[in-house]
Every structure is written in C-alpha cells, then in structure tokens.
Specification:
The complex is a heterodimer of chains A (about 400) and B (about 375).
Chain A (H helix, E strand, L loop, with lengths): L1 H8 L5 H33 L10 E6 L10 E2 L1 H7 L4 E14 L2 E8 L1 H7 L3 E5 L9 E5 H7 L6 E6 L5 E11 L7 E5 H8 L5 E2 L1 E6 L6 H13 L30 E5 H11 L4 H29 L1 H9 L4 H36 L4 E2 L2 E2 L6 H20 L5
Parallel strand pairs in A: 4-9, 6-8
Antiparallel strand pairs in A: 1-11, 1-12, 2-10, 3-4, 3-7, 3-11, 5-8, 6-9, 7-8, 13-14
Chain B lengths: L1 H7 L3 H36 L6 E5 L10 E2 L2 H6 L4 E15 L4 E9 L2 H7 L3 E4 L7 E5 H7 L6 E6 L2 E12 L7 E5 L12 E2 L1 E6 L5 H11 L4 E5 L3 H41 L1 H9 L4 H41 L11 H28 L8
Parallel strand pairs in B: 4-9, 6-8
Antiparallel strand pairs in B: 1-11, 1-12, 2-10, 3-4, 3-7, 3-11, 5-8, 6-9, 7-8
Helix pairs in contact in B: 1-9, 2-7, 2-9, 2-10, 7-10, 9-10
Classes of the chains: A alpha+beta (about 400), B alpha+beta (about 375).
C-alpha cells in the first residue's frame, strides 16, 4: 500500500510524450464525435421533420406505398373529412415538390397557410405571409434564402423535377421555424400541385394536430377507412369546415385503404428511414465502428509511450514495483489525459460542425443537417476512449 | 535500401500497416456506400418521365419577367427543322379589377393561342380567344376572382389600362391556370412597342437527337440567350448527390488528420524502438539525408501497404455489412463500389498525409548525433 502511494506521487511519465497520446485520442474522438453528431443530427432532424420532436399530437396521413415522403399521393378531400373528427384541432394538406431554383436543388411545400401555421407557427423575419390565392408568391426559409442569396421581393425561376412545369414566384416573406423547414420554400397549395404534377384532388400528405385525450390514432384511421369503404358522397357545405379549402374545390375520389397510412408524424418518418436500415442504434454503431477503426492508432500511440518510458519502467521494476502496480498506476495517471483529450475532441468536433454548417457544407436532400451537443455522445466517446486505453495498458507487456 | 528493409522487419511494422489500413478502410467504405446511393438515386431520376418542353430566355435573366429577347428570334426558330412547335410569349405583370376582386395577375400574350392551349393539354369551357379584345382565363384565377365566360375585365399594366372580354375558361393543371392568356397582337400590342418578347417555349419533333439539335441551335442563335430544359430530374439529383459528396469530403479531412497523427506516432515509435539500429547506421557513417530518406522510405512503404490493404478492407467490409443488412432488413439492397477516381484521390491524400506526419520526427531523428537519445 505504502509503495503504491509513493509510486503514485512519482511523476515518471513525461508530459511531452503523453501529449502525443493525448493528440491521438483527441483526433479519434474528433472523428467519432463528428460522425455521431452529424448522423444523429440527420436522424433527429428528419424524424422531427413533420411534427417537431416527440410531436405525438401531430399525425400524418400518407401514402403507405410511396418509397419516399416526397412522392406519395393521398386524396385531398380527406383533409376536409378529417377536420370534422372530434379532437382534430387542425388539418394541414401539403404537397412536397422537388424543384430547381436558380439552378440549385430545393424543395417547395404547397400549403394552406391558415391551416399550416396552426401546426407550425412561423416567425416572419421579413415581409409577410401569402394568401392561399397569391399564386405568384412564396415564403422562403431563412437558411435557403441565405444559401441561394434570396431577398424580399426577389423573383425566382422554378424548374420542375417530377413534372414538365416551370413558373415564376416572388418572395413575399422570409420565415424562421428553427427546424429543417428553414431550407424550404412555402407556396400556396396549388403551386405545389403544379410543380409536383398532381391533379387538384391529390396531395402528398395530410398532417393533423389532434388532442390525444379526445381522439386516438385508431379513431383517425377508422375515419379514413370508412371514407374508403362508403360510396362517394358529396361534401356538404363546401368551404364551411375547419379545413380551409383552396380555390379549386376538393374533388372526391375513390381510394383503397391499403394505400393509406395513419401514423404519428415522428414515427412515420422513422418508419421511412428504418425501411432503408437507418435507425438510431445503427448510426451509433456505425460511429462507434469508425472510432474502433481509428483505435489502432491509439494502441500504437500507447505502445510508443511505453517504449519511450522503457528505461523509467525498468528502473521502477528493479526497485520492486510489481507489473500490476505499474499498470494500474499508469492507468490512473492516464485517466485525466484521456478525459481531457476526449472532451477536447468532442468540443472541437462541435465547433467544426458549427462552422461547416454555417458555410452550408452540411446538407442532405437540400436540408441543413442540424446537430445538438448530445451529452450521451460525449459520455460514449469517453467510455470508448478509456476502455481502449485500459485494455491497451493492462494488456501491455511491461517487463 | 538496406536500412529501409532493416526497419521494415521490425515487429511493430505490421501493427503500423494495420492502423493505417483501418483508417483508409473508413474512407473507402464510406465512399463506396455513397457511390452506390448516388448511382441509385441518379438511376431513379433517370426513370422519371421527362417532358418535352424547353424555354428560351435572355442569358442574364434570373426570372421570366426579367427576360427580354428580340421578337424576330422566333422566326429563326421556325426555320429549324428539328423544332415541332414554338410559342413566342410576352409575360406581363398586371393589376386586375373585377366586381369581386382586385388582384395582381400574370398575363401571357402568346402567339398561336389555340395551339398553345392544346400544347398544354388544356380543357376549355367556351372558345379560344382570337382577337385583341378577347382572353381566355385559367380556372384557378377564374375561381379566385369570380370570373365567368362572357365577363368583361379591366386590367392595367405598364401604366396603361385595357378592356377585354373573357371568351373561355381553361384547365391545364399547371401554373397557366392562374393566368390570363391573350392572343398576340391583342391588348394594343403591348409587346410590339419595343419589339421584345419575354420567352419562347418550344419542343422538338419526336425522334430528334436533342443534344445534337441543341448544339445546332446554340450555333444559330445569339449568345445573349439561353435554352433551359423545363424538367430536370437528373440535374436535381446530381445537385443532391453533390451535397452528400461535399459533406463526405469535409468529413474525410478528419480521417486524414488522424492519418497525419498516426504517421507521426508510427515514426516516433520507430525512433524509440530502433534507436540502436539508427545509431549504428550513424556510427557507420550514414549521413543525415540518408537517415532521413530511410525513415521517410519506411513511412511511405508502410502507408502504401496500409493503403492497399485499407482499400480492400473498406470495400470488402462495406459489401459484407451490406449483405448482413440485407439479411436483417430484406428491403435494403446495396452493392457498394469504388470508382478509379476515388482510389486515386485516396492514394494521393493518404501518401501526402503520411509524408506530412512523418517528416518532422524523421528530420529530428536524422539530426541527432548517434550518442543522443530521441525524445
């Protein structure tokens, strides 16, 4: 016990040599953190895409056969029908239309402004919101405005992607939503239908804001199922429901219930990503694999430190220190270095991601990938680094 | 050469090669997966049914209403054999007043209005406008402003007021549905005053090789105009893919930074564990540059071997992971691959990073006397 206390006080590891090890741990942590924070940011951003984080009160009615959230088609009149269900606070029919603006890829979302803002309150940074009948107007998110250099009253040339359409819109307002929607252009519903090549009776998705204490997911689904089953009936009193109608009246059309899905918005997006093997667990595993692939460099750095301290360690062994004592002592001495280096790697990664996000290099599907300083990633980073250092030190052959 | 072989036979060389190989494998596997995803998305974009429409507008125009082109250009287009239909148009921003609405509208003054509506697969209630006092109105605009066939409209544009009679309401399921269409030579000829039009919309005859036709057109038409394909799924997808590649490139910088650090550590370890051999070489008269070259040669050899192993590991690893993923999730099917360009880029950057990492310790080691001990 006495000898262990004495050896703990003896500073036989040279700081300059340990700096190299710390540098390597910092670099490996940096790589892990950049990978994990960006991948999880992408995952979190897209799962919150339609309803905000955890948004259990936002329900998506979508085409279950479509391969992407942008390419489905559901009957628009369902928005009207669902608006009358007790517990449905607001319905937002939306059309997602990929397009080119000033030769850059972008997404336009056709909306009914009054309904949309009940689900996603927008902060108008400049200008004002368009009306449903302002067919030449658009609102642009502040990030896409920055990326494409757009200003208020600018005129945009939009080129279609899924349809042989082009049109000109003028920027009536710039909004901020503090979500990945800030990379989109909002326009009246019909503009989305034109650019997407849809008829006036179809839309991409219906989002509902519901009071979960009054209405359940299954009740909404039952309503959709009853619409699919019953013969076509006219919409009574068009224009008088809670769902604001666009100019072209909703046309009723037959559909198969197998084609329609009803799900919480976040689960709906998770479902899409899981279909392609993208889960939170898979992304964390991928990041950890990246760390482990770079871990052999840490092992080499540790071996280098041991080689560089060969004389000191031999001397301590000759003075009676056991191999076990030396290994444990080294581990204790390396603990603060490992902690500091992994924390530095995490912080530098966050700073780098902040910079590359600001420069617009962090984009997937024309949406900026958000990232959060996730403490679980920082903790996992330290655990991985310390485990690796422990295994390397305890497994080292100190003579 | 002999000294390099001596260094390469050290027991730590294998682990050094493996360390670099694993780092290169990260880059290679990520590149291969992204290549597959990008190729798939471009292939999917290629499946989209692409329309026939092109527009001609002035080169410097950022929007349609900014565009000003000579009206006589249309005559040139009619002479081009490959073009089946062309529609010169003047686009006007106007203010429309009706009994129920007061709004800003787009007016399209177009030649061959009847053919133009047919070109846009329009369904029409009423008749085609045929003279300067008639117009056809899009169904969406008609719904918004309460316009019906037979209605008389007053609109103002460029400080002038015009009166027209609505003779038809059409539906095209396109932005035209929110516009007013007037035949060319109507509205007191608003375009004729300056002999300028805004755009020309056209399409080629079936079976025409568009690339050749566009090249021929570019030779005949003035350089002040540009031709834009109206539907561009492939350009869109390339743009999206470029975003992923850009992020991957920025991310790769972190991996190359570790390769620099790894090479530095590998060289330090070489110095620590081969100090005796290096001291012997110096004692035998080896010059500084000889020692420096030997250490650099060692680092480059390790990097080259690590690179080859890493690329193979990365590709095989990504393909194995894809196969496992397919077992777990049958809907996922991936075949990651690497392009020659990726391999070349990885090769150059890995070797450059390795040289950068080992240069300083190699120089320090070469500079020490044979009795001195490296740090």
């Amino acid at each position: 016990m006495t000898s262990s206390i004495k050896i703990l006080r003896f500073k036989y590891l040279k700081r300059q040599r340990l700096l190299t090890l710390a540098l390597i741990i910092t670099a490996a942590s940096l790589l892990f953190s950049i990978t994990a924070l960006s991948l999880l940011g992408f995952y979190k951003g897209f799962t919150a895409y339609l309803g905000g984080e955890g948004g259990e009160d936002i329900i998506a009615v979508y085409n279950s056969k479509s391969r992407t959230p942008y390419t489905g088609s559901v009957p628009a009149y369902l928005a009207y029908r669902l608006a009358s269900v007790k517990g449905v606070v607001a319905t937002s029919p939306e059309v997602m239309a990929p397009c080119l603006i000033n030769d850059q890829a972008a997404f336009l979302r056709g909306i009914v402004p009054e309904s949309f803002t009940k689900l996603n309150p927008l902060k108008i940074v400049r200008g004002s919101m368009f009306n449903l009948s302002d067919f030449g107007s658009a609102m642009v998110g502040e990030r896409i405005a920055k990326r494409l250099g757009l200003n208020l009253n600018d005129r945009l040339l939009l080129i279609g992607v899924l349809a042989d359409r082009y049109m000109e819109l003028w920027v009536k307002g710039i909004f901020a939503s503090n979500s990945i929607m800030d990379d989109e252009v909002l326009a009246p519903l019909h503009v989305g239908q034109w650019l997407r090549g849809m008829d006036y009776g179809s839309i991409t998705i219906i989002r509902l804001k519901v009071d979960r204490s009054t209405v359940s997911l299954s009740e909404v689904f039952e309503k959709v199922a009853s619409e699919a089953a019953q013969p076509i009936q006219p919409i009574p009193g068009q224009g008088k429901s809670a769902a604001q109608e666009p100019v072209m009246p909703w046309t009723i059309r037959r559909f198969s219930i197998e084609d329609i899905g009803v799900e919480e918005a976040s689960k709906y997006m998770k479902g899409y990503m899981e279909r392609y093997g993208v889960t939170r667990e898979a992304l964390v595993t991928l990041s950890a694999a990246v760390f482990l692939f770079s871990s052999s460099t840490i092992v080499i750095a540790l071996k280098t430190v041991l080689s560089q301290h060969k004389d000191e360690l031999s001397l301590l062994r000759a003075l009676g220190a056991s191999k076990r004592l030396l290994k444990v002592d080294m581990l204790i001495k390396l603990l603060p270095w490992t902690f500091t280096a992994s924390a530095a790697g995490f912080l530098i990664a966050s700073a780098i991601l902040g910079v590359i996000q600001g420069l617009g290099y962090m984009q997937v599907l024309s949406h900026t990938v958000p990232f959060w300083l996730d403490p679980s990633i920082a903790a996992l980073n330290f655990i991985l680094a310390f485990t690796l250092v422990s295994v390397s030190v305890l497994g080292s052959g100190i003579e | 050469m002999l000294s390099e072989k001596l260094l390469l036979r050290r027991p730590g060389t294998v682990s050094a090669i493996l360390a670099l190989a694993l780092l290169v494998a990260i880059i290679a596997s990520m590149n291969s997966v992204i290549n597959y995803v990008n190729a798939q998305s471009e292939a999917l974009a290629g499946l989209v049914r692409i329309g026939e429409t092109y527009i001609i507008l002035s080169r410097n125009a950022t929007a349609l209403t900014d565009s000003h082109i000579d009206a006589r250009l249309a005559n040139c287009l009619y002479e081009i054999d490959e073009i089946s239909q062309a529609f010169p148009q003047k686009l006007l921003k106007a203010h429309l007043k009706t009994a129920s609405a007061n709004l800003a509208v787009n007016i399209r003054v177009v030649e061959n209005l009847e053919d133009y509506l047919k070109f846009n697969a329009a369904s029409l209630k009423g008749t085609f406008a045929r003279n300067s006092f008639e117009a056809d109105v899009g169904e969406v605009l008609a719904g918004t402003a309460g316009i019906t066939v037979g209605a008389k409209l007053t609109f103002s544009t460029n400080g002038k007021t015009f009166n027209i009679k609505v003779v038809g309401v059409y539906r095209t399921q396109s932005p035209l549905d929110a516009e007013i269409l007037i035949p060319l030579a109507a509205v007191g000829n608003p375009y004729a005053e300056d002999a300028e039009i805004s755009i020309i919309e056209f399409k080629f005859k079936p079976g025409v090789d568009r690339a050749i036709a566009l090249k021929r057109m570019a030779e005949r038409l003035p350089s002040s105009i540009r031709i834009v394909k109206v539907q561009q799924p492939i350009i869109f997808m390339q743009n999206i893919n470029m975003q992923t590649i850009t992020f991957l490139n920025v991310w790769s910088i972190a991996v190359y930074a570790i390769i620099v650090a790894a090479s530095y550590v590998i060289t330090l370890r070489l110095m620590a564990e081969s100090s005796y051999e290096i001291a012997v070489l110096k004692a035998l008269g080896a010059k500084k540059r000889h020692i420096f070259a030997s250490i650099m040669g060692y680092a480059i050899a390790v990097a080259a071997l690590g690179l080859m192993l890493g690329i193979a590991l990365g590709l095989v690893g990504a393909q194995t992971a894809s196969t496992i993923l397919k077992w777990l999730q049958p809907t996922v099917e991936m075949s990651p691959f690497l392009e020659a360009e990726d391999i070349l880029k990885t090769l150059v950057l890995t070797l450059a990073s390795s040289i950068l990492g080992c240069a300083y310790p190699a120089y320090k080691s070469a500079s020490l006397g044979y009795m001195e001990k490296p740090l």
